[in-house]
């Protein structure tokens, strides 16, 4: 069996990256209107999510500094690429194929990062997530995304 390449990552670096992504999203969220209490604008969700990312990044850094150890946690490069590939696949597939195929593909690709997952459990997770997102985003929020749009 071929050994996969691994990258050593310290939790402080992970926390710093999370903090920076949160800060960038925080700044970017102000490009959209906040709205009012009665009718929230499109900036509220990214603003809230960015605050949570900033808090999580700070918590990760504090926890690592308090621990006082320097764990060398290897991250397999293939896992890193598949986890990053899931959202990329979603972004590329949601418009031409619809919400359900994009979510299923995203979950399936991201699940390749953990070889211990059983294919049936991944399929059940992808199906449940696709149906739940369809219910929330299309049925309840009335977003104009096709559930399935087969271009063939």
What does this structure look like?
The chain is mainly α. It is built from 5 helices and 2 strands, in the order βααβααα. The protein has helices at residues 11-29, 44-67, 77-97, 99-111, 119-140, and strands spanning 6-9, 73-76. A two-stranded antiparallel sheet has the order 1-2. Helix 3 (77-97) runs antiparallel to helix 4 (99-111) and helix 4 (99-111) runs antiparallel to helix 5. The chain starts with 5 loop residues before the first strand and ends in a 12-residue tail after the last helix.
Features:
mainly alpha, flat, single chain, two-stranded antiparallel sheet, 5 helices, 65% helix
What is the strand content?
Answer: 5-15%
Q: How would a crystallographer describe the biggest sheet?
A: 2 strands, antiparallel
Structural class assignment? mainly alpha
Assembly category: single chain
Helix amount: 55-70%
What does the radius of gyration come to? 19 Å
Question: Which whole number gives the mean pLDDT?
Answer: 87
Helix count from the secondary structure assignment:
5
Uncertain runs: none
Q: What topology, given as strand order, has the largest sheet?
A: 1-2
Q: Categorize the overall geometry.
A: flat
Order of helices and strands: EHHEHHH
């Amino acid at each position: 069996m071929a050994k996969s390449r691994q990258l050593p990552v310290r939790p402080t670096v992970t926390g710093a990256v999370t903090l920076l992504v949160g800060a960038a999203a925080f700044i970017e969220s102000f490009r959209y209107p906040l709205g009012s209490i009665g009718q929230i604008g499109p900036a509220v969700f990214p603003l809230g999510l960015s605050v949570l990312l900033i808090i999580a990044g700070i918590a990760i850094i504090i926890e690592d500094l308090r621990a006082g150890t320097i764990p060398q946690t290897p991250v397999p490069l293939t896992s890193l690429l598949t986890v990053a590939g899931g959202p990329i696949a979603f972004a590329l597939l949601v418009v031409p194929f619809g919400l359900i195929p994009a979510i299923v593909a995203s979950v399936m690709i991201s699940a390749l990062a953990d070889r211990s997952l059983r294919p049936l459990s991944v399929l059940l997770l992808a199906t449940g997530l696709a149906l739940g997102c369809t219910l929330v985003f299309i049925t309840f929020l009335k977003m104009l995304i096709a559930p399935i749009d087969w271009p063939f």
